[in-house]
Structure formats: C-alpha cells, structure tokens
Fold these 3 entries.
Entry 1:
Amino acid sequence: MTSRRTPPFGRALCAMITPFTDEGLLDLDGAQRLADRLVSEGCDGLVLSGTTGESPTTTDAEKSALVRAVADAVGDRAAIVAGIGTADTRHTTELALEAEKAGADGLLVVTPYYSRPPQDAVEAHFRAIADASGLPLALYDIPGRTGTRIEPETMLRLAGHPRIVAVKDCAYDLLGTQKVLAATELAYYTGCDEYVLAMYAIGGAGYISTVANVIPRHFRSILDAFEGGDPDEAIRRQQLTIPLTELMMGSGLPGTVTAKALLGALGLPAGPVRAPLRPAGRETVDGLRTAYERLVAAPAGV
C-alpha cells in the first residue's frame, strides 16, 4: 500500500453539532463534554460552526466563544477547525481573524452562497481569506447548498497558495476530485458519510462527518481497517453504517436535526435546533435509535 502524506488536521474529523440549552442559548459546558467524548472516541479533529453546527443561526460572538471553550476542553489532543464561511468576503475575513484569536488551528471556508459569483470571484474570495490570517484553510465545496461549484481548474490554481491546504468535498464528483488529487498536495476530506471509504481508497485524507457525532469510534475503525491492510473489513464496517447514515442524511431532514435528535435520545449534549429548523418527530427519533442500537450491537469482526 502506498504511503500517505500526513493530513493537516488528522484523518477522522467530526462536523460537531453546536449544543444549546433548552432555552436555545449556547451551551458551552455541553459543547466541552461532547468535544471531549468525540476526541476520546477517536476523532483527530473537530469542525465547529459548519453546516451541522448551525452556523447560519449562531452569532459571531457565539462562534468565537465556542472555539475557545472547545479548545480548552481538548487541548492538543485534536485539531480545531473553525467554520467561518459567509456570503460576504469582508465578514468572512473578520471571522477568520476572530477564530485565530480564539485558538482555532484551521479554518473551513465555504464558497460564497446566494450571489453565485463566477470562478474568478470565487478564487479571489478564497485568496483574500488565506492572505488575511496565518491559519491553514480548508475549502468547503458544497454546490448543492451554495449554488456555486469550486471547479477543479479553480482548485488547481488555489492549491498554489501556501495556506490553502485542504478541501471538504461535498461536490459528488469523484472524477474532478481525482484530477485535483493527482495534481496537487491538497488534502481531500469527504463531507459525505457514504463516501468515507471510497474517498480514502482513492487517496483522500479522511472525512469530516456528521454521523460521527454519534458513532465516532466506528467511523475511525473504517480507516484503521483499510490502513491496516484489511480492505474487506473496512468494506464491512462502511456497509454497517448504511442504515443509520441513510436515516440521518438521506431522510429529507438536515443532518443537524437528526444528529441532535439521536444525541438527545442517547442522553448526550445536544439541545434544540434553532429556527427555521424544527426538531425531529417521535417516529424519526425512534427509527434513529433503533438503527444506532443495531449498529453498535453488530459483531466486531475478525
């Protein structure tokens, strides 16, 4: 098996939910307890204030406070990657500087959304953020939400910037991904839980997973099995996740909603979602709990 470059933020990253109190306020104690559990269960890094972290409905002050609290909780045991993406280059730059002050190790920067900028403007946006801060950047390519792709040719140009080091890939374009992987040093993390093994097998760095909020150790074990020379076991472990991943990510509800519902059912820090999101219904929660229990009860393998 070919050797891999050391990924900038580790291999196994969780797109962590943002816990709230029953009153809808930021729950920093809950965030610290959840972060400690995720790291203890195998996460190399935590991505805060991303899509799963409800970044559109948390304030700038809450984002900074969350980074500080989680960094205090995990210390040097895991990388802290702060989601700072907005539709406004100036605002994103301000968030980058605040995240750096708060103790983040890296930044996750999504393509500007709604305005649908052309590729030269997308490139200029990312370069402006990379130039403004001393932290390494992961570009977040999720055209299904932003309306704009980071085209492979744009990725190839951006890869030359010394602080643009990684990609969270939710573009569902494995051909384009492989073109960039073959030609650059960018570390590709899949943001699609069903692609964890597939991305790793073609040279990706690992994953940034929503489902890992509830089964962090299991997702880590997929990469460990593959890295340990047992692809059949890696396949088995990936396939075990299908029912839960489908319920959490393919049921028509946002992953934030399903992750918080299941975490809450398991007695772990979560709390409500913020409007316009709405909580999952009882039938959904029961289905998630059943799928989770079946997965954790599955044989460990040989």
Note: The domain at 12-230 is CATH 3.20.20.70 (TIM Barrel).
Entry 2:
Amino acid sequence: MSKVKTKGTTGKIKYQNDGYLFAFPIVFMLAALIIYPMAYGFYISFFNTNLVTKWKFVGFKYYIEAFTDPSFYKSVLLTFEFMILVVIGHFILGFILATLLNREFRGRTVFRVIFMLPWLFPEAVIALLFTWIMNPMYGVLNDMLKSLGIISANISWLGSKELAFPSVVFTCIWKGFPLVMTMILAGLQSISKDLYEAAVIDGANKWDSFRYITLPSLKPILTTVIILDSVWWFKQYTQVFTMTAGGPGTATNLISLSIYGTAFNDLRFGKGAAWGILVFIICYLINSVYKVVLKDE
C-alpha cells in the first residue's frame, strides 16, 4: 500500500511540474511584456530623466503636479467625454444590430460577416481610410453631402476645432461596435426560447420579456463588455493620433496623446511615466465603479 501511495504521490507531483513547465512560456512573456514595463515605468516616474545621461530623483513631484496641472485635468476630462460617447455609441449600435441579426432571415450569415469587418481591420488602417474620406479637398464625404444638397462648400472635418472631436468619435464608434454586437448576439442566442414562450403564456408583452428575461440574462455579458470597452477606449491612442495627432489645437488631445507628447516630444520621461501610472489607476477605478454600480458578483 505504501508503494502505491508513493507512486501516486510522485505521479501527482510530476503532473503538477509538467503544468508549471507548460505555463512558464506565457508567464515569462507576460512578465517581459507587461509586468516589467509597468514596474520600470513606475520606477522612472520618480526621476527627472532623459533615460540616458540625466537621472535626478524627484520623488512624488510629478504625481503631485498632475493634480494641479490644468492640462492634465483637461486631457482626462476630454478622454472621459470621448470614452462615454464611444461606449454609448457602441452599445446602441451593437444592441440594435445584434437584435436584428438574432432573427431568422435569408443571408443572415453574410450580414454578420459584413458587420464584423470594421473590427478585423487594424486601427491605423481605419484611421487612414476615414482621413481620406473626410479630406476637405478630395474626400468622398464632402462630395456625397454636396450632391445631396446638404452642404454647399467643402468642410474640413478634421481641421476644425468644432468638428474634429465628433468626427473622431464617429470613426471610433464605427471601428469598435462589432465587438459589442458579437458579444450581445452570443448572449441573445444563449437565452432559451422556452422562457419567452412561457412569458407570452403568462401574458407578458415584448417590453416585459425584454425587461425580465433579456436584460437579466445578458447582465454578465454586458458587465464584462462595458468594462473592457470603457478601459480600451479610455486609453485609445493609435486611431486618434493617426487622424488628428491631438489637434487642431487640443481639440482631440486625449490623455494618451498628452503622455506621448510629454515623454517623446518634451523628453520628460519621468513625468510621462507618472501620468501613465495615474491613467492605469483611473482604468482600475473605472473597473471597480462599474462592478459596484452593476452589482457584479
């Protein structure tokens, strides 16, 4: 009996060691690509440094300055406005399309593929495409609006302080809605039709079915999607930078662009790193607030 037990224990230990061995590559990659850069960024946030010859310890100076710097507050508030508008657009458009695609009709698979295309293209490609579409000289958007009689002269969509921000928001909504649509569609398809049939028998109308069956069933998915979508677009950089580089002026200068400019244009890497850590904390707080508000278990 003792030999069998020893053999079993040895086999269990070997099985666990094999698991650690298989998990090591991904753990190493995460440590190299995520944990180390974050730790190093936190480290240099305490220095006034150009990363080469200048290393002056300043402690929490840049963190304290951020709370009194108007440009930081302005960028953060603009980023919150950007995030809220984009996420709301994603959920409105994604919910409508998911509801339509959940119905049985001919060619449904084709439409699902078409509506997924924006998510499959890289952000830089989408940004360059819409930059061309909105070009004030030869962009097709102005030609279409003029042919419909909506405008009489070309409009500089990305060169106007009033229009650049909503133009970027629209582009980001178009880019990101397929993810929300797909997640909601998967949730809708997982709801048993028997629940709706039982609700009809009990005298429930469509609104009652939506309120007491659809929304509660989708709550776990909606909670996850809204957290991921909010954090993703709060730290958005590529698409906005490619389209406007934060301009004109500071009309689209999100906090991610401010951090990039501070670090790589002004060569104030310590300050940029401190702002990056603060953005990480803000993203964590967004996650926590959503979980409390939505009462996620």
Note: Confidence is low (pLDDT under 50) at residues 1-6.
Entry 3:
Amino acid sequence: MFELLIFKILKNISFFIKNSVMVPLPSSISYMWNFGSLLGLCLFIQIGSGLFLSLHYNSNVELAFSSVIYMMNDVNHGWILRVIHANGVTMMFIFMYIHIARGLYYKSYKLTLVWLVGILILLLTMGTAFLGYVLPWGQMSFWGAMVITNLISTIPYLGVTLVEWVWGGFSVSEPTLTRFFSFHFILPFVILGASALHIIFLHKYLSSNPLGLPKTDMISFHPFFTVKDILGVVLFLFSLLFLSLTEPYKFMDPDNFILANSMVTPVHIQPEWYFLFAYSILRAVPNKLGGVIGLLMSILVLALFLFSNKSKSQESVYYKSFCWVQFTIFMLLTWTGSLPVESPFLEIGQCLSVMYFLNMFLLMYL
C-alpha cells in the first residue's frame, strides 16, 4: 500500500515536470515572453502580503483607516508589507499591459482559449484591484467606490436594486466595506485558478513566437528559458524593492491619506493610474449608459480579435505600425484620464476614445 502511494506521487511529479518544466517551446522566443512568469510571481507576492495584512485589517468603517495606520506604525515590518502590496499591484498591471500588447503585436490571440482566459484574468484583476483600493477608507477610496458602484444603476430595470445590493443599504457604508473586503480576499484565489487554466491551455496549444513560424524548431523550457526567467525575476524584485524603499507612495493619491468624509467631495475624483484609460473613455461619452458601455468595451474589444484576420503572416508592416499607434493612444488616454474634466482635456479624450476603437478595428481586419 505504501509503495503504491509512493509510486503515484512520483508519477504525478514526473507528469508535472514533463508538462511544465520540460514543455517544448519555440527556440525564437525573446524576453518579451518573460512577462507571463513575472505575472505569476506578482500574483503570489500579492496573495502572500495580502494574507499577512488581512490579519491586522478591520473592515469596520470606524476602524478601517486606523487599522491601516496601525499596520504601518505598530506592526513589525507592517510598513514594508503594505507598500510592497500597494506597489506590487502597480508592477502587476505594468506587466499585464505589456503582456497583452505583446499578444496583440505577435497575434497570440490565435490561441483562442488561452486568449479568452487571459481576458477573464484581466477583468478579475481589475475588479480585485478596485475592491482593494476601497479598503483603506480614505477620501479617494470612499468617493471612488461611490462613483464606480453608481455606474451599475445604468442597467435598465435592475440597476437601482443591484446598486443597493452591492452597497448593502442605501449608501456606501459599513456593509459595503465588509463585502468588498470579503471579495478582495477571495478573488485572488479565483485568479490563481484561472491562471492555472491559462497555463494548461498554453501548454496544450503551445506558445506563439516572434517569427510566426510553424511550431517545428522546439526546445525544452528548462534549462534554456529558465535562465531568461530568472534574470527577469531578479530585475523585477530589485525594481519592486527599490520603488518600495525609495518612493513608496509614488503611485498613491494624496487624498487617500485623509479619512473618508461623505460631506467633503474631493476636487478631482479619479481612479488609480491603471484604470485611467478606461475612465477617460467613460467620461468622454455624455450619456451615462453610453459611457459605461464604452468603459466595458474598452476591455471586451480584445475578445473580438478572435474573429479577426488570422493570417499566419506576422510580418505585416502596417499591422505592427498600427500596434504602436494603439500603444500611443493608450498612453495618451491614461494621461487625459488624470486631468480635470474640462476643456480642452475633455475634447482631447473624446477624440482619443474614437481613435482607440477605430484603431482596434483596423488591427482586427488589416
């Protein structure tokens, strides 16, 4: 009986090594393919640091802000855990956007199931990040939650009911914070499961490559690509620690260091930088429902690439040129989203929003 158990364990270990460490990959893969493994490392850092922070966090509206201050000042090494958790999500979104951009540039959307699960991971990550942004219960946390959850009210017939269900009442209050904390704790494990599914599909259909050639010249992941991944991991950890130790609050809004006050509205309510491109599209549409649709489509438009031109040739000069145009539009939308809702920034955002979707459709059918 014991020998049979040992045999099964060894068999499972052999299967894992064969299907992960020794998986065949195209020999032409460059460092642009490192960001998938870096995202996995980011996820584990976020889960690990978040578990320790959750031990000291209190979701009561009277104590939430104080519990964050307590973590920073009185918990041993609590300050470094908090800034690593906060800056880790910044690094994670940087890597995620580069990962998606690489997928578009090299037409990785031809791997249908891999692409679809990747979009699901993006949506789950954005939702988790928004829920976490509310937890410190600062001014921007409270008003950001108020504005974003109110968007649900645009849903015909059910909108108001759904908003009240999300709030747990008739305004953003303690039940809202408790629910957000619960979902923020659970969703990372859902993302972990989706990431495992993402990797399973990737290993089944095999990775794309910069040359777009048939999958013939294959080499094993270890040791040829583990060296590249280790180099990326070292650079990432150095960057995260450098940012956390020298500029720990670089990407945090100053208003969020003020206790939430429902009677004082911030001058300029805006989300974190990684949502600004979608926020710019949201406010570019005068109609509230239209803005919400534009917000959702700014992300879901990626799924439409499954119906695009899937020619094997990846050397189209026009296609790659428009990829760089799309990158420029994305950066400009992020910039306009950080600016006040006034002329000429509003008009610039509207023009860029039209260009964003137009260029996406050009990429699909070039």
Note: The radius of gyration is 22 Å.
